[in-house]
Amino acid sequence: MDILGTNPASPAPAAPAAGDLIKDADITTFMQDVVQASMATPVLVDFWAPWCGPCKTLTPLLEKTVKAANGKVRLVKVNIDEPQNQPLAQQLRIQSIPAVYAFSGGQPVDGFVGALPESQLKKFVEGLAGGTLEGDTAAQAIEAGKAALAAQDWTEAAQAFSTALGAEPESVPALAGLARALVGMGEIDEAREVLAQVPEAPVEHADVAAAKAALQLHEEGAQAAGQLKPLEDAVAANPADHQARLDYATALMGANRQQEAIDQLLEIVKRDRKWNDEAARKQLVKVFEALGPMDPLVVDARRRLSSILFA
Asked: Which among 34, 101, 152, 303 is most buried, taking Cβ atoms within 10 Å?
């Protein structure tokens, strides 16, 4: 019997449900799971064996990449160590494993032998699926979101990070970025809810730290916002009143006047860097975290801070 019969008699099946994207098959189900299924959706066939070391590396990457394709391609795994599957391996002339065959329209159309790096595997599956994978979509959306954050376009940033989360719901950079955008929009409760969804990790992600710093600064600034003019007057009346100046800087941050807030904090460091256990310098660090290391205000402020500290 020709296992790969060129004219499958059964009609093409419907596109697979999410739960059917990855399955194990043998010689008895190969026609249905691979040949016939590929008439509707391209199918990757992973030929492997339990003793194959590279297979243990490749198979998880295949599963991850197929899931990212979101139904545009399926994966079928065939253990050629099972005696019943050896005729199938012989017919496809598989001489070493891991070996991956791509089926489309009922026929093998492409393939490779050996464990590919994840980047090459994505390109291979993209070519088969006919489009960019979700993981790449998420990465592009995150980059767009970060660019919007830098421009303080909070609405655009929120939309970009939401797009990324649609592809990768547990993406830490996307969750943190969305929280940061919500803070910028003044949606504080929503920002807290998003941050609560960030998976726990041994070391806090830099984007998460930035979002938390922005949230804290906003909350402190909101409390001091009503005192902006009195605090400004207090600093003008007594330039050596460091607490009034620190409170003034906090209120300025709450009013989104970051440059002026940084100027006030630097002035405290210049006058008395050790005041109140270096409170001004520590507040600057928090501002730097919230704005991000590449923000032009941060780059300039770090230069100015270094000049003061090492003068």
From this structure: 34
